[in-house]
């Protein structure tokens, strides 16, 4: 979502202290703490010092130094008294959790995990019979409320950080799981009777949150389906999110305005998503919308945990003010025991690190990524980048037609220009030939072999301009040819992208695996899953071992143990690690068999891997080609228009030059006629000879004379006596 609306959170009241025969200043500072993190720190320090105290002085039930301790019970307001120092510890721990819940409900949205940790430690380490507000049922309710609210805070941060949709959906689903556990506790008749009037308010808010965060989970599952091109699933998830949100709105009656605003905002987001998805599927994708119960349920991802409470952590409790009450021998023995634990951890970690190194090197050499070894699902859908291009062309149905028409217009203008230039060139050549024949006929200017006669100034200018236009035309002709080649290259792809999505999908390569190939692939995936399971189990066991060692404090036992019995006590205490060491040894021993099986599976997978790699390469190449064709369309249209503009301009110039060439050729022809007439007038009078009637028929030309009958057409009206001396022999 574009923003993250916030829901109110539940926080707990602090208990009030009564009689306790302890130092008045200490008591006051512990029960009247400020409602901030400094108050949490004070409670932790006081709790830790009480722990140190009770381990040295017999202040438990029916012990010598026991004194009455009084606190007020939260729900009933009654005072409850016990002669047990652990009751004081339990009440302080309850207040620590309550204060963290109060701070967590504020704008900073922190401390929920700390609250859950305090209530968990209280549930697991203290009797539940002290008072109603610290009963097992109430503590379980508090723990689930705090964990749910902590997960809710993590969900807000995940959405603000734009984490992956599937992860956000799982985080939200876990919020729902925590609140369902809390709701079950609230619906319990015994718990309801303990809580009194606040039970209904809490239950209504928690039920509303269950539906609200279920809607958020399905919203993000719909977004993931959208990312995976599963448009039918997208519709049903968005519809389910809308239904659950409507249920939340019904349950939100009477809630504050902040809740109503959050619900309205979420309704705008989910409603818009649903309407858009349904419209797209109805008019574009036409995918079947599956039933919600046929889809895999969203499994919650518990990413928060109750933070452990360590009453002996000096960083929290400060220095032990009762340290002088512990014998030095106990301190020395505790240090020796810590060294034994450290030695045990070093031995185990050396084995783990050696196996991990072998495993990492082996997996690197295999180059097998469990997430991509099976990418067959990729071929079932058109990738988003290609879908985007298809959608863009679907709203521009005349794309191919416009491109073809544009290129046809360009070809027509190109042909017109070429025809005009050819006609000009033919006129010039014809004029040149006529000029050469005239000069040879008159015999005035000797003409060298292959040397054209000098044209008139008008024709020279036309010839020069024609040569310039021809040069420009030839260069542009190459560009025009390349443009047509590019169009022919992309036009088929553009037609494909403009067509039905089924044709696009059919044009994309897809792997063709036999049943044996599929079996090989499934076997490899199964073994890779085993490798990951082995890694996860190893990490979990290592973490468990570290936590056990960290929590293992036998100082109280050492104070009361004789020095001669210390070694035996160490051996007894270290036995608690035997079981987890056995599990780790089994995990490490299994690695050799798992890697051997993976090697065999990889050998069989080699041929399938090669085939899949080739298909994937073809798939990527085809998609890149289709996308390149789409992106080339605008460039082709632009260059086509530029070509049309260029040739239109050149056509105009060529047309003008053609008119100019015609005029110049006509002028040159007229000039040649005048020259011929002048030459005939300059000839001497004819010799007196007996006239012989001239046959009025075209002159016959000698073979090889180089002249044709048409060349002497102007002389056909003359008679022999009128011809010059040098022409009579013809």
Q: Which regions are unreliable across 5 or more consecutive residues at pLDDT < 50?
A: 445-451, 692-730
What kind of oligomer do you see?
A: single chain
Q: Assess the beta-strand content as a share of residues.
A: under 5%
How would you state the average pLDDT, rounded? 79
Helix percentage range: 55-70%
GO biological process, one term: early endosome to late endosome transport
Organism: Galbula dea
Main location: cytoplasm
Subcellular location: Cytoplasm; Endosome
Structural features:
elongated; disordered C terminus; coiled coil
What would you note in describing this structure?
With 730 residues, this protein is mainly alpha-helical. The chain has a domain at 7-131. The protein is built from 21 helices and 3 strands. The protein has helices at residues 24-31, 37-54, 85-104, 112-125, 136-160, 165-187, 189-195, 198-227, 231-251, 257-285, 314-317, 328-366, 384-394, 399-442, 457-498, 501-507, 515-551, 555-559, 566-574, 578-681, 725-728, and strands at residues 17-20, 69-72, 79-82. It has a 3-stranded antiparallel sheet with strand order 1-2-3, with helices on one face. Strand 2 (69-72) and strand 3 (79-82) form a beta hairpin. The longest helix has 104 residues, at 578-681. The chain is elongated, with a radius of gyration of 49 Å. It starts with 16 loop residues before the first strand and ends with a helix.
